[in-house]
């Protein structure tokens, strides 16, 4: 590299480094950790999982007895008249009557055709479904964090490329001014160099804007203040050893969408068990201890009180309900059939997505190698062109073309790395295998 170009590049790097002194260095591991702790959707999914876990109780399944306390107080004021069999009549205006009953009752369903046990198993499966949804949410959000993070790395690399081209454009302007001052170049050459430098500075400002917006987006995924400043690592490391067959095997075991469909099938089967349980009798034990008091202003008895234990059982069985039992069972069986179809559909979707994403992944890996070679060639071409430009053997248009080719090659190489990383993230997300 030309000594002057190296000197100006070092100066640009120094100012760029000075600009980020004091900023937080955010690694991808730190970003994922912050997202797991702060992301709002992950927090909601965690709470939903806790709700599903809380619902798995014997009481919610209907296995435990219920106890109820009750108080009933009735009062009345009436004008009463009583005629006895011997013909005598008794009358009383504003007669007061009072009845008070209170106590505790106990009820326990001891048999319902095993419906309560099927219900308990269903609650457990619903908890597993909540776990699968939490896993899906985490995978999606961690995938977004990875994509946003490596987009920042790409934006940062493009900033460095534009910084380099501005250094070269400033050197070109200086050379043009020097040549004009000694009469070896026209004013037009100086103006062209100035216009190209201005264009590069505009492109740099646009890139800085994109970089700042990408930071804000990542902060949003991390659920923290959008104004928090930080820097990211300088390289994108792509895992180039993924194998499609291995990914498909992992997806069959770990993909949360497929896992959810399998759990839904189990839930539908347990629902059918509960529907079939309605064919059997229901046996319920009852008991209680009650107190009762009554007062009457008219009649043979003015005051009565009772207290004591009552117990018994009741049994019921559906004999005929207008064929609703048959209809309910048929609907439950169709729901099971739907879940089987959904599993087959999800398997096909998963295989299709993996195959498509893997083909894109392979293409992007090849593009990385090609663009890396293109960048090296463009850099070599720029060095040669710069030397020729200094001695005046090529035009400013040729020099500008070589300069833009170099910048575009660097940008394309950065984009190829980023696209390959996105493909890797998509494959691992489908396989349920993102490391976090």
From TrEMBL:
The record's annotation in Gene3D superfamilies points to: Outer membrane efflux proteins (OEP)
Residues making up the signal peptide according to the UniProt record: 1-18
Q: What InterPro entries does the record tag this protein with? A: OMP_efflux (IPR003423), TolC-like (IPR051906)
Major location (coarse):
membrane
Annotated Pfam families: OEP
User: Which top-level group of life is the source organism from?
Assistant: Bacteria
Where is the protein found, in the record's own terms? Answer: Cell outer membrane
Q: Which UniProt keywords apply?
A: Cell outer membrane, Membrane, Signal, Transmembrane, Transmembrane beta strand, Transport
Q: Which SUPFAM superfamilies match?
A: Outer membrane efflux proteins (OEP)
Name the protein family.
Answer: Belongs to the outer membrane factor (OMF) (TC 1.B.17) family.
Name of the protein described by the UniProt record: TolC family protein
């Amino acid at each position: 590299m030309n000594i002057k170009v190296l000197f100006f590049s070092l100066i640009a790097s120094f100012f760029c480094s000075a600009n980020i002194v004091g900023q937080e260095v955010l690694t991808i591991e730190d970003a994922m950790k912050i997202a797991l702790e702060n992301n709002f959707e992950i927090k909601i999914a965690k709470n939903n999982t806790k709700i599903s876990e809380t619902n798995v109780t014997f009481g919610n399944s209907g296995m435990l007895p219920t106890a109820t306390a009750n108080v009933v107080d009735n009062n009345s004021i009436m004008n009463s008249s009583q005629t006895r069999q011997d013909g005598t009549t008794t009358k009383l205006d504003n007669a007061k009557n009072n009845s008070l009953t209170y106590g505790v009752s106990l009820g326990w369903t001891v048999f319902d055709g095993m419906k309560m046990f099927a219900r308990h198993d269903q609650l457990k499966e619903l908890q597993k479904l909540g776990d699968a949804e939490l896993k899906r949410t985490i995978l999606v959000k961690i995938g977004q964090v990875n994509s946003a993070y490596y987009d920042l790395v790409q934006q940062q690399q493009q900033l460095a490329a534009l910084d380099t081209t501005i250094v070269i454009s400033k050197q070109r302007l200086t050379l043009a001014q020097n040549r004009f001052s000694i009469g070896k170049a026209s004013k037009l050459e100086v103006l062209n160099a100035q216009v190209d430098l201005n264009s590069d500075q505009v492109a740099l400002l646009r890139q800085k804007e994109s970089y700042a917006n990408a930071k804000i987006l990542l902060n949003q995924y991390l659920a923290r203040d959008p104004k928090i400043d930080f820097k990211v690592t300088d390289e994108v490391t792509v895992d180039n050893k993924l194998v499609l067959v291995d990914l498909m095997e992992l997806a069959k075991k770990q993909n949360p969408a497929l896992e959810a469909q399998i759990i839904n099938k189990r839930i539908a089967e347990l629902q059918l068990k509960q529907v079939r349980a309605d064919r059997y009798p229901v046996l319920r034990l009852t008991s209680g201890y009650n107190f009762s008091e009554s007062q009457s202003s008219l009649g043979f008895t003015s005051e009565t009180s009772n207290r004591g234990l009552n117990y018994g059982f009741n049994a019921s069985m559906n004999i005929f309900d207008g064929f609703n039992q048959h209809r309910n069972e048929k609907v439950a069986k169709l729901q099971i059939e739907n879940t089987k179809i959904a599993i087959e559909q999800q398997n096909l979707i998963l295989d299709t997505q993996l195959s498509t994403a893997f083909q894109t992944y392979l293409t992007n890996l090849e593009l990385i190698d090609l663009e890396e070679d293109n960048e090296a060639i463009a850099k070599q071409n720029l060095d040669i062109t710069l030397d020729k430009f200094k001695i005046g053997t090529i035009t400013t248009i040729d020099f500008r073309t070589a300069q833009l080719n170099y910048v575009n090659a660097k940008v394309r190489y950065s984009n190829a790395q980023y696209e390959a990383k996105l493909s890797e993230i998509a494959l691992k997300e489908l396989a349920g295998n993102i490391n976090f």
